[in-house]
Amino acid sequence: MKNIFLALTTALFIASCSEKKSDANTHITGAVKGLSNGTLYLQKMNDTVLVSIDSLKIDGDSKFKFDLDLDSPELVYLVLDRGVTNSIDNKLPVFAEPGTINVDTDLNYFFAQAKISGSKNHKLYEQFQKVNTKYNRELLEISKERFDAVRFNRLKDVDSIDKKYSQRLTRKYLYAINFAITNKDYEVAPYVALSELANANRVYLDTIQKSISPKVAESKYGKLLTEYMKEQK
Known about the structure:
The chain is an alpha+beta fold. It has 2 domains: about 20-120, Immunoglobulin-like (Sandwich), CATH 2.60.40.180; about 120-230, no CATH class. It has helices at about 1-20, 120-150, 160-180, 190-195, 200-210, 215, 220-230; strands at about 25-35, 35-45, 50-60, 65-70, 75-80, 90-95, 100-105, 115. The strands form 2 sheets. Strands 4-1-7-8 form a 4-stranded mixed β-sheet, with helices on one face. The longest helix is centred in the middle third of the chain and has 32 residues, at about 120-150.
């Protein structure tokens, strides 16, 4: 009887250890449909360099989980090494925040088919990117139009093309400013300011910095925005 009790106690102890939750405050879970072999990396920006902070070898089971500690919401990247198949569609940005974030995606459309839930900042980031990508595409088309005008000696068209480019760029900036101010209570606001408005008029950044909440101002991107503004003075 004593041996049975000891065996049960040992089994319960082992079970409790295996079920012990990570001490990390952020958990990124999910699956890559169709992936049976490869390596998934979790990366983040360190200054201006993207570095790996964790990795997981996929061998048969397409499910994954990464645990990490975040002081504040931050953009991280899931990067897929497919092993035998190369693709430009191998990097998936995730605006992570403390809690559990679920990522479901597909091997063939790793970025395009990704469905990410559990992060309010990421939801807002997706909304911003949907419109911002359209502006970037339009600006690229106008740049090509200008290149062709110069190439084929249609110099009389250059001024009007430049004016169109400037107007579209201003609209892109105004959209980013309005987005950041509207979402001043979320860390995505200073991120957008830094990533999209660094080359814009300093007044735009100053407006955003003054509008963000105290909590956001103390976040990673809030502090980086403050530092950037000091450097510009």
